[in-house]
Amino acid sequence: EIHIKEPIEKEVNPRLLPGELLLCEASTVYKYVQEDGSNRGTYGKLVCTNFKISFLDDDSASDDNEPQFKNKIVGENDITLQCVDQIYGVYDEKKKLLTGQLRKYPEKLIIYCKDLRVFNFCLRYTKEEEVKRIVSGIVHHSQTPKLLKRLFLFSYASAAPNNTDGRNQTVMFETLEDWRDELERTKGNVKYKAVTTNEGYRVSEKLPLYFVVPICISEESILKYEGRGIPIWCWSCHNGAALLKMSAFPKEQDDSTSQMQKAFLDGIYKTISKPPYELLKMDDLSSSLPSLQDIQTAYTKFKQLFLIDNSTDFWATDVKWFSLLESTNWLEIIRRVLKKAIEVAECLEIQHTNVLLIEESATDLCCVISSLVQVMMDSYSRTKSGFQSLIQKEWVIGGHSFLDRCNHLHKSEKEEAPVFLLLLNCVWQLVQQYPPAFEFTETYLTVLSDSLYVPIFSTFFFNSQHQRDTNKSGESLKTQSGPFRFLTVWDWSVQFDPKALAFLNNPLYAEKPKPDRSQRKTARFKHQRQLSLPLTQAKPSTKRGFFREETDHLIKNILGKRIGKFINSSDEPPNSLREFYDSWHSKPVDYHGLLLPRIDGPEIKVWAQRYLRWIPEAQLHGGGTIATAAKIWDLMEEVQSLQVKMDEEHSHAVSGDVHSVPMLRNSARLSSLFPFALLQRQSVKPALPTSTWKDLEDEDDLVKRDDEFVDLSGDML
Hints:
Protein name: Myotubularin-related protein 12
Helix content: 25-40%
Number of strands: 18
Pfam families: 3-PAP, Myotub-related
Shape: globular
Distance between the termini: 33 Å
Subcellular location: Cytoplasm, Myofibril, Sarcomere; Sarcoplasmic reticulum
Structural class: alpha+beta
Family: Belongs to the protein-tyrosine phosphatase family. Non-receptor class myotubularin subfamily.
Low-confidence stretches: 475-480, 520-572, 688-717
Mean pLDDT: 82
Organism: Peucedramus taeniatus (Olive warbler)
């Protein structure tokens, strides 16, 4: 029985972006707000455009309900077509996956989103014709294969006024000067050069227009095998050692071709393995890391744990949370990737060895490892503009196939893999372990992951720079003819106003002190980045391997063999790597030097803000990192107001680069998943009879108390 108030007959129209067209709509749709098994919710209109699916109700225009962290492009009840993961229809209480042409139309519609939101719509009270139109429209526009030019990206680019914020400091790596500047910044210009061999994409459509190779590599070598087998520079360490990547030759070749390619590679290796180049270590990532298929399988299992739309399912999952989490293998993949990045950092930092990452196309796991190593070793990559420039260099210009890996066109699920999400998960581990080292927050990483599915930015919607350039030309509504002017995701003012943008900046960031002018002359010969390893002497580490002996003892005797097996599931690192890891962790952290992630089993955590933000039961009321951040923001606001008063006293202008401080209304209502969730509903933990516990846990000491009820604890937190 559904208890509802009569819908108010009031016309609510969707707010359309430039180039956005209303395709179909249905009135008197009931959106459920699942709450402890009840069927409460609200009436409204469900619409589908060429950009999004949107639910419009009377409350959506109310200022009182407007969230403090509001996205100007995608509202609370909006789902971009690229963000739709799966759509289910409910027929006589049975769920069925909806794809293609439908013979029968459901009474309920459930939409699962890639950002892990779940929407439940009841269509019982909607006119039959409207149900047919809206259901078939949503399924067709969000699930069927489409052409690239049919993406909303092109409609928006042709209709939107070009008034982007010119203050974006991100280096886009679209010009030769950008690459030369990066070589100079990292002091790599002595041994490496930026080349123009691929102008007009005459070498390869997969390679960028400009890239960097060792000085001794000739243009003929680059042209010979379409760029395959050529070491491409990623980054140089302060000691001269460099990180390189290379796309491998296809494995299925006839003998004569293989021999020619082998001779070619031997010549390349001999060229770059002698002075002035350091020793070269090769690492084939396709054999030392999980395959893209393994990563996709693990993430598919992992995300199912969070696609929860009612309390009953949540508490049922909570009882066996750790075993379910372990069975997905997602956290183990993150740990293996971080461990590989530590191995590469050790080669560069301690062994002064060049590292050459090899992969079939050098655009997937190569991007993950090279980006992680730079975040760990280069403090510039831990600033917001530096991190964005890194993503541009390694991923966008580097040729990561965003279109295929995110399956934006629904062409082939075989190509789909959350490779970029894997990087963000790894970076989040570092952000939560060393907050003062990063200029950006976990909220920044969360909105960056959400932006993968917002097709008004070109950043994550092409497979290569060549594909982007060739699709730039087109008919523009404003200029009659001419190239499209695509937006970049790095202009955050398109999505957020200044108050919301303040949540992306870390108030605890330990900014690098600028040297005094008197010291600059003496310090000029030093490289701009500090030596990575902390120089402060400290007591030798008492750790043995990755664990203290006491921890080993605790795992074996208290936590049991199962968890011990999980923690030690991967091969132990070699001795030199173990010494490097232990030595670094025994010393104070230099937030502007090398950062090594802690990769012991329990240290690899679930990115709660991204994965749990839509589940009210998982919120800590008034707790979490936001409780600390709220106090810091209060202090910052007070300091800034005092600064303004002092400046007024001295008749000076307000001091220049002052970050906006978030104004937290109703701070008592904050939850640990803020700014994405206020307290939406109270969820009562079910008191399970011990007979149920017996089925779940088979714990003898609990079963003896027949008539006693056990309050289920929130393991998920």
